Amino acid sequence: MLRFIFRRLLSLLPVLFVVSVVIFSLIHLTPGDPARAILGQNATNEQVAALRESMGLDRPLVEQYLGWVGGVLTGDFGDSYFLRKSVTEAIGDNAVPTIQLAVIAIIVAIVLSVPFGTLAARFRGGRLDRSVMGFTLIGMTVPSFVLALALMVVFGLMLRWLPISGYVNPFEDFAGGIRTLIMPGIALGAITAALITRTTRAAVLDVLNADYIDAARSRGVAEGRLLFSHTLKNASLPVLTIIGLSLGGLVTGAAVTETIFNIPGLGQLLVTSIARRDYPVIQGVILFVTLIYLLTNLLIDLLYGIVDPRVRVGKA
Amino acid sequence: MAPNSPATTNTAAPSTTVLAMQPVAARDSLWRRMLGNTGLMTGIVVVLVIFVVSYVLPPLLHLDPYAVDPANRLAPPSAAHPFGTDNFGRDLFARIVSGASTSLLVGFVVALVSGVLGAIIGIAAVFNSVLDQVLMRICDGLMAIPAILLAVALTAALGPSVTNLVIALTIVYTPGIARLVRSRALAVTSETFVTASTMQGAGMLHLMWRHILPNTLSVLVVQSTFTFAESVITEAAMSFLGAGVPAPQASWGNILYDGKSVLMQAPQMILITSGFLIVTVLALNLIGDGLRDLVDQRSRSLVGKPGVFARMAAVVTPGRFRQEVKR
């Protein structure tokens, strides 16, 4: 198991290297002088030169890169040009709502997808199966921000059940926090559920045809237990994979959805930073979200090893 | 061995002879299989209609997506403005039609360019192991960064314009296609006909062009279609965040962005635009699914019942339909 973890960690290194180069080079992709672009046309040459120096733009490219990576490795993402705080602080302040939203969304997605996907597979071709598959087709098509807008019109404006904007931390006021987060959470989770439902259905269908399910049935295992314990457990590998893969989309989706609901999360931080060309914050946010994505996928990979011993032995 | 001698092993080998003796089923023509796939045809018709409308209607009806009518802001749908007006008093119908051409153009160009680049990278990777390692690590790295975030950041860095948007989205979507093409190309290179061709002295370029590319084309086309759909969504999401198509130009994301702030007064702005967005993406996904069924050997036999489009074609060419029924 240790060797498996080590090998998996080692394979992350080249990915992290490419990610860091791409994110670092963002600032240099700007046509012309980034310092001039940040300060605008009215700034004096002295101001631009001063900013260039403080950004380290006058140093050689490799040195700049190594300096930036060195900072990142020690948890120092640099300072924001506008926020009067370090990027780490800015991300720390804004990550909480985004992660809460993503967690609510993944709960909604799993609660919707796993039972319905399993039942759709069990009653394959039936009315339930067809309607579930129809809904997943819609879910794969509708972007989460469009569903969020639709929910906003229905539950916020027409029925007036839920607030259409604002954020309350659920750790301080649980009921109020859930009220502000549930609508974006459902919008995001329902869309994510579509893909997971399809995968669950396909995986369960595969397992249902296996001999050991027939064997269990002939031993007299109850149908419900057979479906949700025996089958689902063996079908969990592809389902876990797709949940892990959708986590990246979920955090990004949370970033888009939260701007609709005026939730002060990473998405809002990114959008305002882009408008202000606050490069350290842009780089920090993207790196942070990418790291979350890579780490969750790493955890899921390690989880495989626990769920399915074959993965540990084979060349994963 | 005599035909009826007792078996020497416990398991009887399944007789392959009987299977092989069956007559080979007549292969349907590509055109007929396309007609038989209702989803594919629906998708193609919908996308073509939106495409034609977005290019033909504006000059025909003198639609101006930028004409401002301040006295007539946020008007509900009427005869003069079928979809109403937006917060600047611009005709929403004209803006949606103009936005359709932007969205479709961005999606199409991204799908085309990333398809071509992905094919080149994917096939090149198969022929050189060092190149393979380098290219695939770069692809892995790019794919690790969430798509919308990378696209938003790239567009922001390059400067907001439609061209830069296309460049950013191409950078985001090429790695996925390259990886897919590579895995398919890898499978093809181990086929015997490639070995045979190599032994006949075929050069690397000949192999790539004549053997590898045609065999990866099916995966490539299907994936490019899905990339088209993804790009339309991502473009809308980016413009909705205010980091995509720059402001006065119409795109579906921009209209949604404008509509969000006037949700209370004019919900039709968001509802109609999202309707168009969803129908377009659904149509593109139907095309992708349909193409996949078309090229996938396994599901070929499933397409049998003539759908709406096959029956419509049968009205025009009755001879073909009779054939279809007979089989």
Automatic annotation (TrEMBL), chain A:
PROSITE patterns: ABC_TM1
Keyword Ion transport attached: no
Membrane topology qualifier: Multi-pass membrane protein
UniProt record, GO biological process: transmembrane transport
Highest taxon, organism lineage: Bacteria
Subcellular location: Cell membrane
Domain ABC transmembrane type-1, residue spans: 95-304
Major location (coarse): membrane
Gene3D superfamilies: MetI-like
InterPro entries: BPD_transp_1_N, MetI-like, MetI-like_sf
Membrane-spanning parts: 9-29, 99-120, 132-158, 178-196, 235-261, 281-307
Gene Ontology cellular component annotations, sorted alphabetically: plasma membrane
Keyword match Transmembrane: yes
Matching CDD domains: TM_PBP2
Any single Pfam family the record assigns to this protein: BPD_transp_1
Keywords, comma-separated and alphabetical: Cell membrane, Membrane, Transmembrane, Transmembrane helix, Transport
Family membership: Belongs to the binding-protein-dependent transport system permease family.
Listed name of the protein: ABC transporter permease
Source species of the chain: Agromyces mediolanus
Automatic annotation (TrEMBL), chain B:
Boundaries of every ABC transmembrane type-1 domain copy: 100-288
CDD domains: TM_PBP2
One cellular component (GO) term of this entry: plasma membrane
Keywords annotated in UniProt: Cell membrane, Membrane, Transmembrane, Transmembrane helix, Transport
Membrane topology category: Multi-pass membrane protein
Gene3D superfamilies according to UniProt: MetI-like
Cellular compartment(s): Cell membrane
Residues of the signal peptide: none
Pfam families documented for this protein: BPD_transp_1, OppC_N
Gene Ontology biological process terms, A to Z: transmembrane transport
Transmembrane parts of this sequence: 35-57, 104-127, 269-288
Similarity comment: family membership: Belongs to the binding-protein-dependent transport system permease family.
Identification of the protein by name: Peptide ABC transporter permease
Organism listed in the record: Agromyces mediolanus
